[in-house]
Request: fold
Amino acid sequence: MNKFTLSLKMSLSLLFCLIFMAFSMDITLDEQLAYIQKKLLEHHDSEHCEAEVKRYELNVTNTGFCRYKRFYTNGKVEYFSFNLVKFKDLDYYGTDKNGALYLRTKGENVIVQTYNDKRGGDIDSMATYMVIPLKNIEPQDLSDLSERLIKMNAQLLALK
Reply:
């Protein structure tokens, strides 16, 4: 009987430890990606970016890529993309009403492509940052976005 109660106590202790560990686990990669995508879309400033932009696509994929595409009324398309493993830092220039978010990478890791540009043709190049126009964003949101990008960067690096 003594061995049974000892085993029962050990089993219950282990169960409680597992339950506490489950609730204390870090946020998963998919939750990080969804949060970043939601914040960027929620605060994207399509009114102040450029008058000729008719629509845009902004998404963060589950493979860790941040992609931003702008479609202009004259047919020109600009495409920016980088792997969040290469994320270094972010800067925000502007006010809480509107501004520009600079997502900086470690070196020239942002793919920049331009299609159907009547002045320059199709251009492929690399850059060290991606700029996303934002509006109505609080400093706390920027801080939280930065923290989550850094955590996600570490999670993506751990997967490689």
